[in-house]
C-alpha cells in the first residue's frame, strides 16, 4: 500500500485493475458525476493507464478496502512551480455513503501538502453532485466560484463549482 488509512488503503493502479476501472467508469452514476459522456472501451482504459497512470505528471491511486478496489483518487494538473494540483476521485456506486471517498481524499490531501509540498489543491464539482460538494467542504475546501453552464451532461448544461484548499487552511483544520 502506498497510503494506509483506518478504513481504506491507497495503492498504485496496476494492469489487473483495468477491468474494474472500465466497468465502473461506464456506470452512469460514475460517468455522469465526472462529466464523461462517451463509453470507455477496454483499449481506451488501457490508453488511460499507459498515458496518465504511468506518467509522472500526477498521482493516480486505487482506493481499496480489504484489498478490494472501490474507486480511484488522484492529483493531476500538478504544477510543482506554483505548488498546485487538482484532486479528482470517484467511488463505485456499491460503496457510496461509507466514507471511503472522504478518507481517501484526506489521505491524498495530506500527502499533497506534506510530501509534494503543495500550496494549493483545487477541485471541480458539478452543481448536482451534492455528496462530492459535502465531501470537499468537510475537508475544509472553500467554494471559490461557479462556471455557469460549463458542461453539457445528460442533455442539459450544468454549472461547475470550483473549490480550493490552501496548505495553511488544511493544517489549521487538522489542529
Automatic annotation (TrEMBL):
Enzyme Commission number, as recorded: 2.3.-.-
N-acetyltransferase domain location: 8-167
Superkingdom to which the source organism belongs: Archaea
Keyword Metal-binding part of the UniProt annotation: no
Keywords: Acyltransferase, Transferase
Top enzyme class: transferase
Signal peptide limits: none
GO MF annotations, alphabetized: acyltransferase activity
SUPFAM superfamilies recorded: Acyl-CoA N-acyltransferases (Nat)
Protein name: GNAT family N-acetyltransferase
Amino acid at each position: 500500500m502506498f497510503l494506509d488509512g483506518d478504513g481504506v488503503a491507497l495503492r498504485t493502479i496496476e494492469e489487473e485493475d483495468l477491468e474494474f476501472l472500465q466497468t465502473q467508469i461506464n456506470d452512469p452514476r460514475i460517468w455522469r458525476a465526472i462529466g464523461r459522456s462517451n463509453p470507455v472501451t477496454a483499449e481506451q482504459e488501457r490508453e488511460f493507464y499507459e498515458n496518465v497512470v504511468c506518467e509522472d505528471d500526477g498521482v493516480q491511486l486505487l482506493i481499496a478496502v480489504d484489498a478490494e478496489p472501490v474507486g480511484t483518487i488522484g492529483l493531476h494538473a500538478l504544477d510543482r512551480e506554483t505548488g498546485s494540483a487538482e484532486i479528482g476521485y470517484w467511488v463505485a456506486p456499491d460503496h457510496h455513503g461509507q466514507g471511503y471517498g472522504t478518507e481517501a481524499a484526506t489521505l491524498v490531501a495530506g500527502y499533497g501538502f506534506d510530501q509534494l509540498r503543495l500550496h494549493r489543491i483545487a477541485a471541480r464539482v458539478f452543481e448536482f453532485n451534492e455528496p462530492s460538494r459535502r465531501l470537499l467542504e468537510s475537508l475544509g475546501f472553500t467554494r471559490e466560484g461557479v462556471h455557469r453552464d460549463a458542461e453539457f451532461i445528460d442533455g442539459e448544461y450544468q454549472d461547475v463549482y470550483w473549490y480550493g484548499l490552501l496548505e495553511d487552511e488544511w493544517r489549521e483544520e487538522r489542529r
